[in-house]
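ARCHIVE CARD
Drawer: 12
Card no.: 0347
Subject: one protein chain, sequence and derived structure
Cross-reference: see card 0346
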Amino acid sequence: MAVDWRVKGAWVPEGELTPGGQRLFDGPFTWPVMVAKRSAVDANIATMAAYCARHRVDFAPHGKTTMAPSLFVAQLEAGAWGITVATGNQALAARRFGVPRVLLANEVLDPKVLRWAAGEVAQGWELLFYVDSLTGVEVAARALREEPARLRVLVEMGFAGGRTGCRSIADAVAVARAVHDADGLELAGVSAFEGMLPDEPAVRELLHDIVRVAEDVAPLSPHALIVSAGGSAYFDTVVAELTEPAAEHGWRVVLRSGAVVSHDDGFYSTRTPFRREPDEGTLRAALEVWAQVLSTPEPGLSIVGAGKRDLPFDEGMPVPLRVRTGDGALRNLDGARIDRLNDQHAYLRGADVAVGDLVHLGISHPCTAFDKWRVIPVVDDDYRVVDLIHTYF
């Protein structure tokens, strides 16, 4: 995709932008702009690859976080088993990006998506998707009745008050047996998402349910059973609870953490398992939004030119970290905070800044950051632009 006047953050009134060492602060960019630090992205990918290898688990990072083919490639080249997605459109995009194995971590009830997937699988692609009901099994079996390939299915476990997923072990076993008996389907394993649970004991309880279902249904699978979980907040608990029974029974454990590729300065910075187990590794916040101070209209309040269209805010406000003054000097913004966002404005409190200064905002919750930017400049530690990340939401 051409980087020209249509791309937010790039200042290209004429022609196109090709990355080639332009400096962020005096190059063809305007404000706000979100950048990704190359060193942090590379370090995060390597950290997760090493963690998974050390614990003998497979990694299928959740691609809905970034929907960026260049990051998919980097994760796959680092040893990822596959890429996880959440919708049929995301699966289609991943297929077009050349991802060889996709885990669609959601129910699929659209017959045309199922038929398309079967056709692609018949050509050598690998796809797995979820079911959590007998109706879901019936819909898939009906859609695939005349298709050339069988689709692999994971039975999804859920929990009371959560979103999708079977609410009892008995229900999950019944769905697994229906999958086994259905034409066009093959039981691949049992899966869940634990990230919405309130604490570690609740996560352990859900994981114990996964193991109990897996023990019951493993004979129904023609291959080594997959047991999968692992958002970005409790993957250490997933490893602790699933790897031992998996080793005993010959199962495959697949983690699906998505936010780890960029990490953040807010939501996940306090929840990452590496805070609980610092010897296992560390993640670095890779995303920075640079925005200009537009006004200092009253004491203690500065208005910064970035808002809801530029910054995630569903899991915490952006975090003001540094200010770059007109002479290029940088200093930390200790004690400053953003307490409100409009569409294009942020309310910065407690910061000693001047009109025209640039503020470095860390983001909270990367899963709703990438989708706000079609193109994200990749910068080195000296803020030279070395690449561009294109997103496809």
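Annotation on reverse: The chain has two domains: 33-37+286-390, 39-280. The longest strand covers residues 287-298.
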